[in-house]
Automatic annotation (TrEMBL):
Pfam families: PSI, PSI_PlexinA-B, Sema, TIG_plexin
Residue ranges with Basic and acidic residues bias: 315-333, 346-355
Record's protein name: Sema domain-containing protein
Keyword Lipid metabolism: no
Topology relative to the membrane: Single-pass type I membrane protein
Amino acid sequence: MCAGLPMNTLEAYPCGSDHTPSPMASRVPMEAEVLLDSPSARLTAVAVSMRAGHAIAFLGDSKGNLHKVFLGPDGKTKQYATIPIQPDVPINGDLLLDHTQENLYVMTSTKVEKRPVAECSQHMDCGSCLSTRDPYCGWCVLEGRCVQSSECAGAELAGQWLWSFDAAQQCLSVQSLRPSNISREEKRDVFLSVPGLPRMENGGAYTCVFGEHESPAIVMDTRVTCSSPDTVNIPPIHPGEDHVKTTLSLRFREVTVAAHEFTFYDCRAVQELSQSAPCRGCVSSRWGCNWCVQQHACSHKDTCERGVVIYNEHPRDAPVHGGTYDRHDDDCPSRSARSRARRPHSAPDRTHHPEATAQLPVPLSTMAAPTSPPVTTPSRPVAPPSGDDNSTRVQTEVSDPEPNPPETAGEAEGGEGAEESRSHPAPPWPRPP
């Protein structure tokens, strides 16, 4: 049959003559669209493997390189790897796959090399595995290995084998973490969201690991709940620091499926590092620390044993209770701190002021109705200091009127005495003649 072909057949149609073991020729020429062009080097060898319905071509060139090309079902090609075999020595046309289709024999004029069709094991992490875009490889999530699908025990289950060549595949990661930091003195639940988390089969279970401390993970679809460790299991905070960072990992057996940084802070360390202005340093810290005025302490709690709480400028969760604000020897000077403190309307200020008592010997009971100035009795007259306005200042500090002052007995009855007291309030002391 070949003898009947025109003499210039192989020159006109060189398909197979220079890069396949058996040259091909035909009386009827075949034309096709070019899938891959190699302008820098002439292709000298070709072998094709089928894997899971996908075609992968291995191409040798005249410069001694082996190219791996994915042939897509839509006619598109993607060259995903180039391996040097022997520089500037053409690859022989005898490019053959073994009977398992797992190994490729590459030959030159002076060399024969056996290479695996896939080299997945050289990629040690998920990111490296997926970035190769090798159609043979994928990340086995619960085994923590870059392998072919046939080597991953749960490859047929959703989410357990991530195909490297699929650009839409992403390594598992913690999408959200709430909260991302807590006090080392508290124990609470931490909530994670891990999209694409594989479901457990055959009684398997995930675990949460804070540093080296393990605890069972509660999994609902892609939402995970972890319990923070006890204080004794939290890494110590170094001197001069107010926090320590650790890694929160979600594991299956010894394999880390996803991980995220987690922080434990110490409000007492925050106070120690802000000795010149401990209150200001406490409430302005980036952690959830609040200032207990009477205890003179920086605490992660939203309540104090007694007295006043000044809340942090950057609260994570709004407090659900009220509080009061009062002056203190080491009070925070900023106005913003005052606005964050809360005063319940049901608790009027009964603060005793020694300075006011010394200058105005007025019983505190006269201050029950803040809108009416205190009245002195005739038995203890007090003359105002001459040329001094301190009495007015002290009176203003002592009265501290409330938003809704209680009615006096006369006002409740609506008598004339009540009306007169409202029209002509008694002066704080007898007027001079």
